[in-house]
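During the second year of the project, the team shifted from modelling isolated chains to modelling whole assemblies. The rationale, set out in the original proposal, was that interfaces cannot be judged from single-chain predictions alone. As a representative example for this report, we include one of the complexes processed in the last quarter. Its constituent sequences, exactly as entered into the pipeline, are reproduced here:
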Amino acid sequence: MKDLESYLDRSLPKFQEDLFALLRIPSVSTHPDSKADVRRAAEWVLNDLVSMGLSAELWETTGHPVIFAETPPVPGRPIALVYGHYDVQPPDPLGEWTSPPFDPTVRNGNVYARGATDDKGQMLTHVKSVQTWLNCRKSLPLQVKFLIEGEEEIGSDGLFGLIPQRKDRLACDVVVISDTSQFAPGQPAITYGLRGLVYFELTVSGPLQDLHSGTFGGAVMNPLIALSRLLHGLVDDKGTIQVPGFYDDVVPLRAQERAEFATLPFDEAAWMGRLGIPAVHGETGYTTLERRWARPTFDVHGLTGGYQGPGKKTVLPARGSAKFSFRLVPNQSPQKIEDALRDKLARDCPTGVRWELQAYHGNRGITVPFDSPYVAAASQAIELGFGKRPVLVREGGSIPIVNALHDHLHADTLLLGWGLDDDNTHSPNEKFCLADFAHGIRASLHLWDQLGRIER
Amino acid sequence: MKDLESYLDRSLPKFQEDLFALLRIPSVSTHPDSKADVRRAAEWVLNDLVSMGLSAELWETTGHPVIFAETPPVPGRPIALVYGHYDVQPPDPLGEWTSPPFDPTVRNGNVYARGATDDKGQMLTHVKSVQTWLNCRKSLPLQVKFLIEGEEEIGSDGLFGLIPQRKDRLACDVVVISDTSQFAPGQPAITYGLRGLVYFELTVSGPLQDLHSGTFGGAVMNPLIALSRLLHGLVDDKGTIQVPGFYDDVVPLRAQERAEFATLPFDEAAWMGRLGIPAVHGETGYTTLERRWARPTFDVHGLTGGYQGPGKKTVLPARGSAKFSFRLVPNQSPQKIEDALRDKLARDCPTGVRWELQAYHGNRGITVPFDSPYVAAASQAIELGFGKRPVLVREGGSIPIVNALHDHLHADTLLLGWGLDDDNTHSPNEKFCLADFAHGIRASLHLWDQLGRIER
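Output from the structure prediction step:
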């Protein structure tokens, strides 16, 4: 593997330049105004794959396009499908970025930009490792396919529609995804569980328009008070969710998992200090890692309503709204929870106001087996790439497409995260450690070697 | 009075033009950026008073300026002080205005603009009636003083500072204020009670910056959930306030008042229909008029926090805030309530987040005697101006300065409202009925006549 590693070392500056070019494209999939930019990112990925000699295609979807590419088949060896995404979260609050979110800037060995880790940087490690193999060896020891989408941050609707139709093209033995994190700096990890998600926007409306709170207050239900009441009713003071039946299908943590989590070198005080929080908070009877990885949660993401300018305005607002979600663990059904939520809101909503609930696409939580030859190969490759054996972890985030790929392609999944949990994904000042960008490419070089040794 | 009334009829188009000119000035006192416009409105009022031959002065304050003017003393007759304000509420939400808020537009006999009723239109009725007297008679039957400020909508801090220093210049027997409403179209009213106000902004902060709700959710207290919890804790589902001791100093409604309110021709179904609300809401055991006029209340005016753009963003926000207030009835102390509120927030705030409370200037509720010769004179003047005898009412809004004028000048107060309660004060599409602008000037013409008959 010396030839490949040495080519990687020589090519790193160029590979970083490629990453920066992709990071400059503000491909915010949720913004209707960013459609052209999102497409530009798709085309950038397409061109990069084509320019290294791959057969690559842009597939139109109901939303943003999907990029597909593949190396030639290798009979008798497994097929690996690399899934990633070129879309990013909105960058706001903009004022809190040290450097502009779409102007990648290197500080202390990290590149700062929206999407640096999630997922442009991580996704590109596999593109660049395949490029390295092709340059040095003209071929790979197994067939590698790429499936790079542009709607991961908004529920992957377009790709969900394509998977059943393109099942044959996507056929594979193992799905490789780098959209998670290492356990800690210098401690790589393989993730075997992800949480699911159901995301809602609740709007509460009262009077036809804003009213004077002096003239009307006390006799007209205030929509913002009603909204606070409804949100408050969804969760108790320990974070236990109050939607009836919410926990019915939750698979309890196994004693072995809890024991393994407990052995991980997690420094809670340092973690709190980094976040700047005075105390951790969550369900009684669970550790911080358990609460983050393996228990369902409720979070409010945004509140808006009434007067939000400087100073005071004595208005009784016509309406207010909240964006919120539940993270789910395996076996919980997004639809069942939406139904139970609607029942609860209907019961809890005060008289004098009306409520409306918009549900976004939901996805289930998942755990994947970790006793497969693929996990063993990945573990070996990561050790060679990072110089340290990975630990097995779960992660609190969601990758909506993992379930669909698993269900339709009947393939195993490898969640190989090169990020760090202080990378500020979804937050201002997202970053990716450039050393880990290199480690990730190196691990990916070895991954194709290791997986290519498995007989199919 | 025929000469005066006929001069008024001839001058109405000119008086309306003057009103429209003042309405074109966006004198939003709470916006730091509007300082120059607020001053422009002050100067407009000053020039209008000077151009009719009055001695008028611009008094600087710690905030926006105050305009003072006076007609010559009339020995043996009372002095009336007209209080009004040239500042206005912010116009937002801008998108809900049919015509731009600072482009006065006449539709169906109403002028639509921010400040049309509150208080530029109502305040000008007294300016224009004095102008009419001076034009027709060269003098008035009593001394009239004007005190027109620019901070009524933000707590009147500047004027509060001036009153003790300028007590001698402001000395009067009766304060005349038109900043309230008629009881209904065609049913004028004299207001004998106003509610007070304490206004707060509560900010709840958690992590140093926004976090990924998947990676951190469940172990980090969400500031927006904490904010909902704190707001929810301040009021029960009937609108009864849960701040300990809040009701201790509340003066109960007298049986006679309740009986009189009950005789007023209030059509609750029509009122609900106009507001577009499915039900009234409020404290058990009180009518809608009692809830609006004579009971303390809690209202949330604005909520802001986290992601408020289109689509979804799975963020655990660093902070959120709410603007809210309590309306007070006579005898409740704003300071005592602020203290009790701080105690309650300190007790209720969940661990894992911090709270900060900003208090704006508060003011007490007030009721004024209604058996004085001034009320009798005003009642007579209104009947002559509007063609209908006024009823006695209370009002739910606050005029912060009324208490201070009362305390320092030891004068009676006449709250003579020419507006209507669907004038959308503090809301989009604020309006003022132009016929009532004329009725108001006519009533004011007679007010000087009637008050001038009282021997001092």
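Residues 2-194+365-451 of chain A form a domain with the Aminopeptidase fold (CATH 3.40.630.10). Chain A has a mean pLDDT of 95.
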